[in-house]
Design a protein that fits this description.
Blueprint lengths: L1 E6 L13 H11 L3 E6 L7 E5 L2 E5 L5 H15 L4 E5 L2 H14 L3 E5 L18 H13 L2 E4 L2 H9 L5 E2 L23 E6 L8 H14 L3 E6 L7 H8 L6 E5 L3 H10 L2 E4 L8 H8 L4 E4 L2 H6 L5 E3 L4 H12 L2 H17 L2 H15 L1
Parallel strand pairs: 1-2, 1-5, 2-4, 5-6, 6-7, 7-8, 9-10, 9-12, 10-11, 12-13, 13-14
Antiparallel strand pairs: 3-4
Length: 365
C-alpha cells in the first residue's frame, strides 16, 4: 500500500530539532507496513526531498504552497498510485489532502490534531477565527472519506458540526521513550514539578504562574522546570520574575527528547495549564515514565480524570494550585494516578496508533 501523508512540518532532517516526536514515530511505524510519502508544507522555505527511515519526505516550499502540494502529490501518484491520502491536522493540510484526493479519485482522511475547530478571539487562537475558517473547516472535513481525532473532547466538537469521527490517539514510541514504573516521592527533597509546552497564549502559562504564586504563599516547597520554545519573547519569564518566582522556576527553552528525559524522570508531577488541547503528547510521555499530571480539563486530561489525572477548569489558577498541593501531600494518590496513567499511555502507544490507521486505510480501499 502506498500512502501520501500531508503535514505542516515536524519532520526536520535532523530528526531532533523542529520535529514532532509523535509524528516521527507514526511515520516510522507506518513505513514498516506501507510505502509512505510525506508532503511537508512548511518545514523548509524551498522545495527539497530527504528520507526519514523508509519514508520519503517531500518538502513543498513556496510560493503558493497549497497548490504546489496538490501538484506534487499528483505528480508522485502518476509514477505509482497512492491508495489513500492522509492529512495530519485539518486546515491547510486537510484542504490539500481532500483536493488531491478528489482529483485522483482516491479516499482521503483527516486527523484533527490541534485547534482547527476552536475559536478563541481573546488570544487570537483557532481555525475558526475568521469567516473563511468557519466556512472552510466543516466543508473540508465533510469532503474527507474518514475523520479521526486524538481525544473525546475533539470528537464532541466534530459531532457538534455533524461529523462523526473515530478516536485514534497519537501514541508514544516505547522504543525511543521506554516505560519506567512510577517511583515513590523522596520526601527529603523539595517537590519537583515540570511543565512542557511552548510558551504561548493557548498554553496559558499566566495561569500556571499564578498557581505557583499561590503554592509559594501556602508554604509548599517546590521547584519547577519549564521546557519549551519561547514564542512570547521573554514575557513569561518577566512575569515569573515580577511575581517573585525566579528562584523557584527554571526556563530551559527547547530541549531534544534526549535532553528532556532526565528532567521528566526527576519530576514528581507534570502540570498543564492549556486553554485547549487535542492531546497533548507530553501527558502521555510523562505517564510512560511514571509521572502523573494535574491540569486543565482539556484533551486526554479530560478523558483520564479522575482516575489517571486531576483536572480543574480552564484558567482557574486557585483550583490548579489546590490540586497540585493535594497530590503532593498524598503520595498514595500520586502513585495511583501515575499507575493508571501509565497503563493508559502504554496501551495506546504508537503501535496502537499505526495499527488503527492501517485498519482504517484498508477499510477504505
Amino acid at each position: 500500500m502506498r500512502i501520501a501523508l500531508v503535514v505542516p512540518g515536524g519532520v526536520d532532517r535532523s530528526e531532533e530539532f523542529r520535529v514532532i516526536p509523535a509524528l516521527l514515530a507514526l511515520i516510522r511505524r507506518l513505513s514498516l507496513h506501507a510505502e509512505v510519502h510525506v508532503f511537508a508544507l512548511y518545514q523548509e522555505d524551498k522545495a527539497a526531498q530527504w528520507t526519514l527511515g523508509a519514508a520519503i519526505i517531500h518538502n513543498v516550499g513556496g510560493p503558493f504552497t497549497r497548490l504546489r502540494a496538490v501538484r506534487d502529490i499528483c505528480r508522485v501518484h502518476r509514477y505509482a498510485p497512492f491508495k489513500v491520502i492522509q492529512a495530519i491536522w485539518s486546515g491547510a493540510c486537510g484542504l490539500v489532502a481532500v483536493s488531491a484526493a478528489k482529483i485522483l479519485g482516491i479516499p482521503s482522511c483527516i486527523h484533527v490534531a490541534g485547534g482547527e475547530l476552536v475559536r478563541m478571539p481573546q488570544i487570537g487562537y483557532g481555525g475558526m477565527q475568521t469567516w473563511r475558517g468557519r466556512l472552510r473547516e466543516p466543508m473540508v472535513l465533510r469532503l474527507a472519506r474518514a475523520v479521526t481525532a486524538a481525544s473525546a473532547p475533539v470528537l464532541d466538537s466534530l459531532l457538534a458540526l455533524g461529523i462523526e469521527a473515530q478516536r485514534i490517539p497519537l501514541g508514544v514510541d516505547l522504543d525511543t521513550w521506554p516505560k519506567r514504573d512510577p517511583v515513590a516521592r523522596d520526601r527529603s527533597r523539595v517537590v519537583r514539578l515540570i511543565h512542557v509546552a511552548s510558551l504561548n497564549r493557548v498554553k496559558d502559562q499566566a495561569t500556571l504562574l499564578r498557581a505557583l504564586v499561590a503554592l509559594e504563599k501556602s508554604g509548599l516547597e517546590f521547584e519547577m522546570d519549564v521546557v519549551g520554545e519561547d514564542t512570547l519573547h521573554g514575557e513569561v519569564m518577566s512575569m515569573a520574575e515580577n511575581w517573585g518566582l525566579s528562584a523557584k522556576v527554571r526556563f530551559h527553552g527547547f530541549l531534544t527528547q534526549r535532553q528532556l528525559r532526565p528532567l521528566m524522570e526527576a519530576a514528581d508531577l507534570m502540570v498543564h495549564s492549556s486553554c485547549h488541547e487535542a492531546g497533548p503528547l507530553v501527558l502521555l510521555e510523562a505517564a510512560v515514565v511514571g509521572v502523573p499530571t494535574v491540569g486543565t480539563a482539556v484533551g486526554h486530561l479530560a478523558e483520564w480524570a479522575p482516575q489517571a489525572a486531576l483536572t480543574v477548569p480552564v484558567g482557574d489558577w486557585a483550583a490548579l494550585a489546590n490540586a497540585i498541593r493535594r497530590v503532593m501531600e498524598d503520595d498514595a494518590l500520586r502513585m495511583s494516578l501515575a499507575a493508571n496513567a501509565s497503563r493508559l499511555a502504554v496501551r495506546e502507544d504508537v503501535d496502537y496508533t499505526a495499527g488503527h490507521f492501517l485498519t482504517l486505510y484498508r477499510s477504505l480501499v
